[in-house]
Amino acid sequence: MFSARAPPLTLLGELTALPQTPYLRELIGLESVSLMIKKSRLRWFGHVERRDENDSVKRCIMWEVEGIKQRGYPKKTWWDCVKNDMEILGLS
After folding, report:
1. What is the spatial distance between Cα 67 and Cα 84, in angstroms, rounded to a whole number?
2. Which of 20, 24, 32, 41 has its CA 20 to 30 A from that of 6?
3. What is the per-residue pLDDT across 1-10, written as a single tens digit (0 to 9) for each?
């Protein structure tokens, strides 16, 4: 029988539990993947905000689609993610 979990570490004949991922990240000095994604998204947002109002990238990001809405919950857009990241990190 195979298991997806790694076996516990054996140190001098004693079974010890594996260290948890947050502990290992703190020990090595790494950030969580979700925080890295939020930071890079906000960094890109800063680049776009500093562009000229007539820039094609800025116009595409700020573009509101017209027409009939689809059924169900609205799809999450890049702009929605940026607003959510700013709220979570306490930015205005």
Report:
1. 25
2. 32
3. 445 555 555 5
Whole-angstrom distance, CA of residue 83 vs CA of residue 92: 9
CA separation for the pair 27, 24 (Å, rounded):
5
Which element (helix H / strand E) includes 57? helix 56-62
Tokens of 65: 């689609």
In the numeric block, which tokens belong to residue 77? 């857009």
Considering only CA atoms, which of 14, 5, 81, 91 is closest in space to residue 41?
Answer: 81
Statement: the pTM of the whole predicted model exceeds 0.90: no
Residue carrying structure tokens 């609205």: 74
Q: For residue range 19-66, what is the model confidence (pLDDT) as tens digits?
A: 677 777 778 888 888 888 999 999 999 999 999 989 998 888 878 778
8 touches 18 (CB < 8 A): yes
